[in-house]
């Protein structure tokens, strides 16, 4: 099996929907095949909002590559070393939080892409190439083509600059961080607020104008809104995280067990 192809990139460019699960608490590689068995196309390892370290991130990325889903990594900040090390460790895409200006987007391209697009240092063959030796020119071409650079828009400034950010060569996707964005806009939790809807529309127009992909996160509980955003052009939806799924399923099971045993206790007391 060739790991070098970024499956979700092709799916999205062909108009298909990619479902992505966030990973914040899992630390072992088996979370990747578990996500695949549940029907997800991708996972993203969240290094911004969790203490997960790079060793665990790399191990999970490699497991994801092996079971046919695409590993993305949300780095904690814009530091070039975080971007490059995550890619060298097996990530097929980097999600960068809080991108608000064209200058920030250009700096990220410099960190994430090989020349001539950027200035990423060449490690050679690694996990994303199955460690297969390749000519340097081919390694660079594959890396630039198959590694997604995803800029998160999470501020009003980022939305205002969406067109300019999308126009930067090397930026592959704009990803709306719905919760941070609506909080920055002074409407926390109001995911159906007209101002947030306008922000989605503005980012969608920028992506369409410049041939870039659009993604959305933070709207797991609203299926109707997710469908609306797909119609608007969103092709990657972050559906939820390991934490939310665990809490939801465990809470439901505990509630059902409490209810069942409570009914039995009441019946016993009545007799």
Question: How does this model look, in words?
Answer:
With 271 residues, the protein is an alpha/beta fold. The chain has one domain: Alpha-Beta Barrel (TIM Barrel), CATH 3.20.20. Helices cover 48% and strands 15% of the residues. Helix 4 packs parallel to helix 5. The protein is globular and about 80 Å long. The mean pLDDT is 94.
Task: Describe the secondary-structure layout.
Layout: H1 7-13, E1 18-23, H2 31-37, E2 42-46, H3 54-66, E3 70-74, H4 80-88, E4 93-96, H5 102-112, H6 136-146, E5 148-153, H7 156-160, H8 162-166, E6 173-177, H9 178-184, H10 194-210, E7 213-217, H11 223-232, E8 236-241, H12 242-270
Parallel strand pairs: 1-2, 1-8, 2-3, 3-4, 4-5, 5-6, 6-7, 7-8
Helix pairs in contact: 2-3, 4-5
In short:
The protein is an alpha/beta fold and 271 residues long. The protein has helices at 7-13, 31-37, 54-66, 80-88, 102-112, 136-146, 156-160, 162-166, 178-184, 194-210, 223-232, 242-270; strands at 18-23, 42-46, 70-74, 93-96, 148-153, 173-177, 213-217, 236-241. The chain has a single domain (7-243), classed as TIM Barrel (Alpha-Beta Barrel).
């Amino acid at each position: 099996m060739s790991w070098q192809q970024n499956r979700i990139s092709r799916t999205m460019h062909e108009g298909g929907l990619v479902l992505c699960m966030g990973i914040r608490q899992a630390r072992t590689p088996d979370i990747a095949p578990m996500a695949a068995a549940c029907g997800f196309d991708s996972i993203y390892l969240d290094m911004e909002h969790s203490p997960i370290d790079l060793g665990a991130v790399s191990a999970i990325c490699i497991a994801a590559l092996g079971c046919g889903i695409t590993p993305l990594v949300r780095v904690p900040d814009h530091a070039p070393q975080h971007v490059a090390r995550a890619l060298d460790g097996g990530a097929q895409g980097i999600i960068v939080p809080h991108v608000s200006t064209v200058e920030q987007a250009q700096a990220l391209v410099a960190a994430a892409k090989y020349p001539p697009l950027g200035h990423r240092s060449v490690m050679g063959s690694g996990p994303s190439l199955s460690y297969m030796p390749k000519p340097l020119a081919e390694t660079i071409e594959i890396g630039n083509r198959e590694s997604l650079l995803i800029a998160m828009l999470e501020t009003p400034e980022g939305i205002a600059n969406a067109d300019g950010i999308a126009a930067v060569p090397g930026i592959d996707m704009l990803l709306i961080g719905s919760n941070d964005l609506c909080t920055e806009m002074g409407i926390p939790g109001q995911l159906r607020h007209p101002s947030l809807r306008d922000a989605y529309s503005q980012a969608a127009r920028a992506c369409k104008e410049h041939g870039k992909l659009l993604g959305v996160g933070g709207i797991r509980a609203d299926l109707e809104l997710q469908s609306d955003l797909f119609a608007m052009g969103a092709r990657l939806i972050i559906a939820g995280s390991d934490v939310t799924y665990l809490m939801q399923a465990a809470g439901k099971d505990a509630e059902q067990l409490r209810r069942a045993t409570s009914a039995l206790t009441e019946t016993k007391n009545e007799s």
